[in-house]
Amino acid sequence: MNSKLGRNDPCPCGSGRKYKQCCLSGPAAPRAAGTGVSRESLETDVERGNLLQDQGRFEEALACFRQALKLKPDFVELNLNIGLSHQKLGRSEEAIASYRLALAQPRVALQAYNNLGMALREAGRLEEAISNFRLAVALDPSCIEAMHGLGAALLAQGRVAEAISTLRRALALDPSQASVHSALLLALLYSDTEAPRRVRSEHHRFADRFETPLTSTIVAHANVRDPERRLRVGYVSADFRSHSVAFFTEPVLAHHDRSQFEITCYYNSACEDAVTMRLRAMADRWLPCSTYSDEQLAQRIRADRIDVLVDLSGHTSGNRLLVFARKPAPLQLGWIGYPSTTGLRGIDWRLTDDRVSPPRERSESDSDADMEPLHRLPDVFSCYRPSPNTPDVQPAPALAAGHVTLGSFNNVAKISDGVVRVWAALLQTSPSLHLLLKDRSFADTPARDWMGRRFAAHGVGTDRLTMLARAEAEAEHLRLYGRIDIALDTFPYCGTTTTCEALWMGVPVVTLAGDTFAGRVGVTLLETIGHPEWVARNEGDYIQSVLRVASDVAALNGLRMGLRDSVRGSRLCQEANFTRALESAYRAMWRRWCAGAATGQGAAARSL
């Protein structure tokens, strides 16, 4: 959570007085003669700006704050508020510039360093972000916000163990911080050293801490128990924009049967782009809700008489799990966006499939056992709609390069120590194999050096590695798949969007089947498109699978040029069929609720 200054906040100078009674009450710059400037006009601009900011009206808030700065040019701490408005609007660079201006006022250095770290992290400037978070923590070792931001930035840089340690320290300082606990849970999914049972228990601990106290506030739902009526479905996400989640939600929103389902999207962000506009046009109702408290949003959902409420975030950034904990809808589901249990008892079902969640998942020894019963959709748990900006498939780069290039565009946090070890062993099988990695963290030299050292520890020099930073344009990002012959999936946390993108761009993907949902996404994607031979069962098989695909470059090129058609014709891209299956699941769950059958923990895992 970013900090801003309000007129009734304690003054940052430490006087103990309210800001409006202390440093804010200094002299304002006069306007031109006859304008009648007063102390009240300055306070009014600040107060109105804060009110507009709280309402999510960030452009209007900016106008008020800028007017206040005209009245009092040395009011540099107001740049915290200006930066926050820019940040909420997705303007990271403008936010960074504003926070740097705020640093000129030592009284707000803590807030400025923290906010600057947040904006730098969002801009992908992770090394700078980490430095600023550390400066904030040095000023105040008990600053939860800065420790939270530091943990998130370390995770984004792939330093998973450090991120987990930092987030654990932050949570120990204040266990009531749900956002910090969620960040810790997300970080744990990337670890290949944390015991899966411990990860599961930590998710359940989240529910005990934040959901259980709300149980007594849940009231009976007044939704009409008609099993065949038109259902009101609500989707909750902070990612209705250019984000991985949109690739899987857009085809569903486009194909919902509006005669049977009324669709409301609750968008927990102020950032809007072309994808947001497309998704908004597909919904019957669209509610920006980032300024709503958890209780306010729960009340709104209840007032909207939502029958089926679907979480698309899990414990990722911007989630509204504490709304789901209040049980505003009679049926609540977890779907894409988070590859594990949320831990919440208020999530009645989690949508999955037989490959990513084989029946043994519910056994006592299973490492991914959920609070939520599983509903297994036929064929595949999601449907992929490729970007409209997709370039043509290019010939295998090995034809021109004379060597095979392996690659991964996965989030660098997924490149665990086990992954580095196996990939290094793979590279050592032949000097003609090269590895290309792409992640936004590689814009920073220290991040590239760190990754290079990880491979060097296993005998692989940087001459065998290419590290690319984030491509700004989507089409440019997709064209970079033209530099890869074979994509390597990560473990224990597989890729999803990156796997779909690679396959669509003609690049075969080799995955290692794991034991959890996060570790089996590659299994369901590859088997769904008809390539089970790219699914390895152990590390040795993984290496051999890659070498088999790489052994015949001419065959690899032929495979590449036909792979997009294979993906397009598979169940993975049959949008209407998938949406009908999803709607059938909603209807079956609704009929159970109308009949008074148990949901949540009282229901058994099944395909309804």
In short:
The chain has 608 residues and is of the alpha/beta class. It has helices at 39-54, 58-71, 79-88, 92-102, 109-122, 126-139, 144-156, 160-173, 178-190, 196-211, 244-255, 274-282, 294-303, 321-324, 398-401, 417-427, 445-456, 474-479, 497-504, 517-528, 539-550, 553-568, 575-594; strands spanning 231-237, 261-267, 285-288, 308-311, 331-334, 349-353, 374-377, 404-408, 433-438, 465-468, 486-488, 509-512, 535-536.
List descriptors.
10% strand; disordered C terminus; 608 residues; 7-stranded parallel β-sheet; 23 helices; Serine Threonine Protein Phosphatase 5, Tetratricopeptide repeat; Rossmann fold; 6-stranded parallel β-sheet; alpha/beta
Detailed description of the structure:
It contains 23 helices and 13 strands. It is α/β, with parallel strands linked by helices and 608 residues long. It has four domains: 110 residues, Tetratricopeptide repeat domain (Serine Threonine Protein Phosphatase 5, Tetratricopeptide repeat, Alpha Horseshoe), CATH 1.25.40.10; 68 residues, Alpha Horseshoe (Serine Threonine Protein Phosphatase 5, Tetratricopeptide repeat), CATH 1.25.40; 183 residues, Rossmann fold (3-Layer(aba) Sandwich), CATH 3.40.50.11380; 173 residues, Glycogen Phosphorylase B (Rossmann fold). The strands form two sheets. It has a seven-stranded parallel sheet, with helices on one face. It has a six-stranded parallel sheet with strand order 10-9-8-11-12-13, with helices on both faces. Helix 3 runs parallel beside helix 5 and helix 5 packs antiparallel against helix 6. The longest helix is centred in the last third of the chain and has 20 residues. It starts with 38 loop residues before the first helix and ends in a 14-residue tail after the last helix.
